[in-house]
Amino acid sequence: MTTLATNKHETISGPRLTHLQLLEAESIQIFREVASEFQKPVMLYSIGKDSSVMLRLAQKAFYPGLIPFPLLHVDTGYKFHEMIEFRDTLAKDLGLNLLVWRNEQALADGANPVRLGTQRCCGLLKTTALLDGLREHGFDAAFGGARRDEEKSRAKERIFSFRDRAGQWDPKNQRPEIWNLYNSRISPGESIRVFPLSNWTELDIWHYILLEDIPIVPLYFAKERRMIVRGDSLIPVEQSFVQTLPGEEQWVKSRLRSLGCSPCTGAIRSDADTIPKIIAELVSFRSSERANRVIDHDQDGSMEIKKREGYF
Amino acid sequence: MTSTGEILQVEASDFLIEEFLATEQKKDLLRFSTAGSVDDGKSTLIGRLLYDSRNVYEDQIRSVTGTQVGQKQPTIDFAQLTDGLRAEREQGITIDVAYRYFSTQRRKFIIADTPGHEQYTRNMATGASTADLAIILIDARKGILTQSRRHAYIASLLGIRHLVAAINKMDLVDFSQDVYQAIEKDFRELVASFGKASLVTIPVSALDGDNVVEPSERMPWYSGPTLLEHLEEVPAWTEEKDLGFRLPVQRVIRPDQYYRGFAGQIASGTVRKGDTIVALPSGRTSRIASITTFDGDLEEASAPQSIALTLEDELDISRGDVIADVARPPQHATSIEASLVWFDGHRLETHRPYLLKHGTQTLSARVTRVLHRTNILTLQQEAVNSLGMNDIGVVEIDTVRALYFDPYEQNRASGNFILIDVKSNATVAAGMIRRGIEAGATSGTPKHKAALLSIPDSTLADLVEQQLLADACAVVRTRVPSEHLWRALLSIGAIVILEDIATERVDAALKSSPGSAVTVKAFDSVDDSNDTDRLTKFIEDLRNEGVLPAHEESH
Fold first, then answer.
1. Longest Cα separation, chain B
2. Whole-complex ipTM
3. How near does any CA of chain A get to the CA of B241, in Å?
4. Nearest by CB to A156, which of B18, B98, B254?
5. Quick one: pLDDT at residue A4?
6. Where are the beta strands (DSSP E) in A15-122?
7. What is the predicted pLDDT for the residue at B452?
């Protein structure tokens, strides 16, 4: 007698897949689900490292086909020039359908963080521009690269985050999200923000960039840069409206940990000019990555307030 | 803003970072959920776990360090490290699922931190749904409250295999072994009554850190692992060993006329290039031509990988279909019995259409009957005719088209579903299929597995055939000694009776198809007991080997 049948309740256990392979499989499932269940999805592309990983995962999800939705960059007008150059080169190299949206009216009216303060400036150039861009194109689902480990209010975000007609988030009335069964049902005018990187950590992102050899903006790598040195802060010299005091402007070996608008994104002093060095710095460096963003610290719980208003 | 007071001296010793990355790359992932009542210290425990395992950033610690009234030294409020939203800071309670990430030298962890507050059972079920392990907090002063009972029950219902009872606030009961043992005994009995989950109990003080990361010196009577030690050692990924391959098709990828790939995340089992599969609901079979990924074709792939399959034949397959192991296909039914966890404020209405999402298929469904509700206090079944928010019950559901499923207890991924309200679009319930309840569940898609039975004479073959037909199996008898024919018959899921064909020949056939999961069994011709006894034993052996379904349990 020969049999290959086995005891019904016997279990087998891993490790079979590494944590990065598991995260990748989960993200790909999310991309495919959204592309199949929504009429008009879009991927919010911010040019940063998380967007770069998100883009690679989208390529994988639809391979050997092309990514079946456009990318949208909400350009505040104050992004680093290296970011814009990187974006345009990448879009050309990969044949991406890249859309750009700016709040031209606010920019024409002279909106900047020095004149308006960071809260109003972000409100106009990021949140309003994002909502207008999504509405103008009629997108019903928008992928974002936010991760739950970034900030406390993001830790409670769903992977499919329901937004009402005004694009707003209600943290007390989120849809239950169970197993990997996502509820894609919305009424006209409502939309879903989708976060395929929800379960990735900052270290996972960097490690994946290294293993997958994903191109990223050179600003992440340390080199001698012109900086305004003010107290504990390093502010990149990019915009003329940021006034400097004598002696504040210096050459500093530095890099950016996260990419935002140049007036509001602090750099750090660093020698990390390769990805392994960035990872080494990260693990020895006990400060969360958004700590260099001026905007999150305006007010206690400020990220939650921005999210309620429609920010990612 | 970031300090620039000192340049970070990264000793770029390439050897060290290489070593770090190599260790990092090998780490697996354990997902666990925590649940606890409002004030039994759950957030404090997680805060302590993160802090003591050095997973909290300094700026996060600064933002939760404050001087409380009556204290001179600033102290860390561990609960504040985990409680995120303004609303809950104001109310002092956790109101939603929060996900936390940390890692040790051994593995990465994802915590689904779920509230114990009574009206938020839905969030706890959510957190438990993807977890390998659940930590249930018990306040040593209070013993097993309703919440702990409910949490243990939901964790078991949602198929979590490893339960950990953290018996907390041991400092407030003078680290008493008697108190701990009394709670442990009661809780062990409770968990055993729910099913097959394993239980480990650990006495802790989250506030002081005893037995969280470091062993407690104040409880020398406890010799078991600390909480973190246990989290590092428990198996991260387990699956029933005998699950067939299932791929719910998410999307058909068709970049040009030469490529047609069926993309999805493997729900269970393993698939290899060359395997014979069945597409459901069409029932047509083909073989795997390739397993496509961006990183190159694979020889084999397993759950939960996301892949795309191409087939040797042009089958009409679209989103919502299931591609499955032909020898071990899922069951199918248009009427099922299922456990439901009701989430919504509006009560379940029987006979009203809801949308049922199962795998990648969404279809219209009606709950025809509520069989019972489980009372969480007594764990008794209560007769009710509807379910309200936070109720857990068993119902019967009719669907407009067939579901291809496995019972949830055997296969989480192909036995789960959600119900969606057609008008409000709310996710109103989570469901776990217990069984199919119509003829189709046993006849349309066989419960038996393909097998080769070698039987020496036609009288015995008659008896076996009759017995199998009575069990609604697909049976074919043949005297043709053609391995090619046998394989063809096996590939459509038949039990093949080989009449009067030498056993050696059958064994040779098996050897020539390595990796085959087909059972080959010979009816022993030298046995001198009577035919009826031999037949009974033969059929019983087939059941034991899983060729025939086990005897139905009475429901």
1. 93
2. 0.88
3. 5
4. B98
5. 34
6. 41-44, 71-74, 98-101
7. 83
